[in-house]
Amino acid sequence: VADLASPAAKVAVIGLGSMGYGMASSLARAGFDVVVHDVRAEVAARFVAEHAGRSRPAKSPAEAAAGAGIIVIVVVNADQTAAVLSGEGGVLERAAPGAVAISCVTMAPERARSLARDVTARGLLFLDAPISGGAQKAQEGALTVLASGAPAAFAAAEPALNAVAAKLYRLGDEPGIGASFKIINQLLAGVHIAAACEAIALARRLGLDLAKVYEVITASAGNSWMFANRVPHILEGDYAPRSAVSIFTKDLGIVADIARSESFPAPVASAALQMFLMTAAAGMAHDDDSSVARLFAKIAGLELPERKV
Amino acid sequence: VADLASPAAKVAVIGLGSMGYGMASSLARAGFDVVVHDVRAEVAARFVAEHAGRSRPAKSPAEAAAGAGIIVIVVVNADQTAAVLSGEGGVLERAAPGAVAISCVTMAPERARSLARDVTARGLLFLDAPISGGAQKAQEGALTVLASGAPAAFAAAEPALNAVAAKLYRLGDEPGIGASFKIINQLLAGVHIAAACEAIALARRLGLDLAKVYEVITASAGNSWMFANRVPHILEGDYAPRSAVSIFTKDLGIVADIARSESFPAPVASAALQMFLMTAAAGMAHDDDSSVARLFAKIAGLELPERKV
User: Fold this and answer.
1) Are A243 and A186 in contact (CB under 8 A)?
2) Is the CB of A263 less than 8 angstroms away from the CB of B296?
3) Which of A52, B146, B178, B291 supports an S-S bond with B128, CB 3.0-4.6 Å?
4) What ipTM was assigned to the predicted interfaces of this complex?
């Protein structure tokens, strides 16, 4: 896909968390020359060691962006994305006109539109492209991308998107639409995790066989993608973070902010947000998001399965 | 399966709502002699007309149960089930010892255990057997049955269960376990419907293409069985009740009662219950449970799709 002689063949990836690291790996595997930046220099060094000859580290977003046709930003939140773009040593200091900035962070649609204005004012293209699927799919190049933006931004971004995504949704020509779809997904995903934990904890209190509950519910109308995916963590007593509680205090926080700014009620999402906040307050912010079940156990003196060593 | 000369070949079905009517139809199709009772005599008459030669009406639960080996009770709630069994003209007045009462209503596990004590004290068998799947699966004989009870009760009930169920879960030897599993399923199902309606309403407020939201979410981690099943009703503007709001004010009410009686918190289910109560309070108790989306529309002045005539 990529022409190694063209500027598009050089891709900058800024942010090497579990998602960014996997995406950068998929891009290197697809033949791109990948320049990586992370505030943790040792993580960038590890990536470069793993992809020798296909990658190099950059000391700043500006250095990473210099000469890159595609700039992928996979940091934690909207504020970090803004700093990566417009802060000191940011992308906009040195990115070439015509390059595309692909913004992958979950954020309010208004923030995505605002970032797009900053970027396009400097002659760059902007794609609002939140991602879904988790760390393993990022590593496999099999993410779902919920993207919106100008046709030129899509055209410029496409070679990189093809390398990281199994499913690419083109949701509209304006930035902010991709962000909105992601927010709706996160509302549901967060509620479903909290509900799964509440249901499993109550089932434990009622003395039910939890493995049987998993079998019955996943074959019944009470099932959700998240129930099927997260409850095994509880059954195994394994709360190592595949996706942390802090992701949902952030994302359901965005849902709550948007709903309030639209004068729109979101009572079920708000109840779920409170459960993630309680779980974080109880010291589990960086544990797996299925830890909401452990919060119930802690509060009510339940015994949930413990991890087999 | 059924031996028409044996008492097991005669099955009583008490309660011809959308679930009971379908189950009675499946039993008639399977070759049973089906005696039906409903407080609405005209519904029983319609059933008998549709299944001439295979069915007859009874004026009371007692009359229906007389001579039946299997008595299926599919009324609205635990109080009605108790009245059908032990009230004036109830099943226990005339049912033969050794017959099995199959209790299909969603109720608190303690109520199921209490009914079982009443029934077994009279020499009958009792199976705690809540059902799931909706009216269409009832009609097709393809329900899911979440059953618990004594092995003798299972043995006696099995011919009828085979005729009504695609999946029969044997969850334990004690009544109350089936009820508990059903309650956990209803907690999740109710939360997922309320969340789906909240998400779709917020998506509408954000100006998203709702058909596209359906496409994206059903392929993403935010999906649930209920989202996939109920959101098409909203997209079609069709709130004719496949399952009514009043079912979930009842079932999430049971969840809330059980949680409180166990001194156990259920914050997400409680938020969902309030949404169904608000929808019922707004005059939609007997409409489809996806009407929670119409509540949001009514409150916030949204336009949701209207039914094409």
Assistant:
1) no
2) no
3) B178
4) 0.94
